[in-house]
Amino acid sequence: TKPAHRMHAGPAHIGTPRVASPSKNAHAIMHAPPGDDHSNVMRSMPERDRDFTPVTASMVDRHVLARGSQDKVVDNTNRKGKEERPDPIAPTPTCTSSILQEDPQNLVRRASITSDSDAIPADVNHHRVDEPQAADGTSEQVVRHHPNKARGQGTLGRSLANIPSANTIGIPTLGSHNQHDCRESKRSSRDIGTRINQIIPEGGFVGNLNNLPKARFNFVPHREVGLMTAVYLDEEFGMPCISMTPAGIIDTAECIRQMQERVGKWASAPPKEKVDHEPYIDQHTRSVPQAAWSSRSIDRQNSTGKRAVIPGDATHATAMTKIPSREMGIRACRAGTYCKHDAERSNEQVRGSRDEILVTDDHTEAGDTIGRVEPPAISGTQMERHVGKRLDTPRGVTSPPVHIQNFPSGYRPSSGYEGTNQIADSVHNPHTLGTEDHLLDILGGHDTEAVTESSPIEQDMLIRSPESQLGSSQIPRSVRGKTKGKTEKSARQNGITNITVEVMYAAREILGYS
């Protein structure tokens, strides 16, 4: 067992809410001590979503422990069943509360007797799986429950739609640009004449899961969440699956061709539905993506031929390794995924696009590797962004886990033809900004220090200690002059001629600058 703060992926108890929260009429109850119940804040802040299903926290504190916590879980399950009538309710423990060694199956059985809703225990081992694996398993559990329930009631939908249709599986909350990728996927599917039957879990109504078999195939854009569900639907209903991420010009075209093949191979498809998507691919390859052309422009020539370290989840690390190598002239010197359970396939996908493999779920190990390699650029998670900042290396965040600033309010997909442009910017901009910082040091551009300098007479009256001069040199150049001027102004007002570090801190407190 590794400390959670050293891992790229979050703990398993966050995985279940990532599936239940974006679903309609599903509810997750987290059996957790204070401090583990932060999923609602994570959903409302980064996603900026006002309409989502909150997660109920069944708190475990010392008072509950004194009399036993099992009754509280049952009571909360029954209460939510009466208040919101969700279907289903998914109680899940956290790593901390699972130490109590309570039997989740027994708690769910007790709650199901009196609850107005179906209760499904999150069947994940919180000490052996991480957040993406838990989300993947919970998605498969919920999907398995409803078709089985519909089959028993005789309401399972198996008749195919008259037009080609697909299920998009694996769009959970708190992903990197997931909602934007979902919009891009829907737009592309509409353009090629493929109707979206169901999208789960993002915005999907769980009561409609019994209609999943009506689609002709399942599309899993992100392998971390949704692959187990697609495998179950293939084994149970014979529904083929496309688990290719449409990122970059080449893979987007290949994904569309696979969709065309799936529709054409379906035995019941009438001849009139056999369409050719090559004109669509040719038109959009020429008109929408600007990545290939912009990579050859003068302002981005400094990126060509560079090497980068690219860690991340299996989906994004694979895409961000192949796309720069094949389409932008940037090769990965180290690339790999922290999703060890899918590392073999990911490594096979990027064969020929990277020099060496980097597979670790410990971001401190990834940071040590970056420190030894000293790459010209880093493209990874927010952890690698911190490493790049310490090493003063150009860096970009291209894979979850990400910071709140990487959840843009505007439309910025990372998949499809439009996503190719966004990926190009995320790859090239760190190099460009690095060049800009270099020019600032050489030319002093955008520096207000000279503007706010005191007059020579005033400067002669003030003496700066070596410690304060060192402290001033550590202030960003963009605000260094302003900060120095305010400190000197405060010193003169208080009759101080010797500026020390203490005087600088006191001026900051008095004048209210940082």
Structure characterization notes:
By secondary structure, the protein is of the alpha/beta class. It folds into 4 domains: 118 residues, Nitrogenase molybdenum iron protein domain (Rossmann fold), CATH 3.40.50; 132 residues, Rossmann fold; 152 residues, 3-Layer(aba) Sandwich (Rossmann fold); 49 residues, Helicase, Ruva Protein, domain 3 (Orthogonal Bundle). A 5-stranded parallel beta sheet has the order 10-9-8-11-12, sandwiched between helices. Strands 5-4-6-7 form a 4-stranded parallel beta sheet, sandwiched between helices. α12 runs parallel beside α13. The longest helix is centred in the C-terminal third of the chain and has 28 residues. The radius of gyration is 27 Å and the shape is globular. Belongs to the ChlB/BchB/BchZ family. It comes from Selaginella moellendorffii.
